[in-house]
Amino acid sequence: MVIKALRKEFKEANDKYYNNVRLVHKKKGLERHKEEEARKAEYEAKPADYEKEMAKIHRFQEEMDLCDALVSFPKKYTPRSSRSSRTRSPRPPPPPLSWTA
């Protein structure tokens, strides 16, 4: 009978310990799930932010920069006297973009 009482006491203490361990694991799992959801939301928001930034730039800005580079490159190798005779006025700014179709 003494052994049964000791065994019962040990089992109760053991159950209490492992119940606490299970609660700790469950709590960590919930925290990990919340962090994962936050990371997922942040990851999904990045393309939208990128699109907003790209919308601010003129559609053909890359091509315009390339043309400017192609025009300015030969200027380094032309004589100074011919540069002054062929000067142009600066290009006017592009018209504002209209996103409505």
TrEMBL record:
GO molecular function, one term: mRNA binding
Positions of the UniProt region annotated as Disordered: 76-101
Annotated Gene Ontology cellular component terms: endoplasmic reticulum; nuclear outer membrane-endoplasmic reticulum membrane network; ribonucleoprotein complex
Biased composition (Pro residues): 90-101
Record-level GO BP terms: intracellular mRNA localization
Organism domain of life: Eukaryota
Protein name per its UniProtKB record: Uncharacterized protein
Organism of origin: Phytophthora fragariae
Taxonomic lineage from the root: Eukaryota, Sar, Stramenopiles, Oomycota, Peronosporomycetes
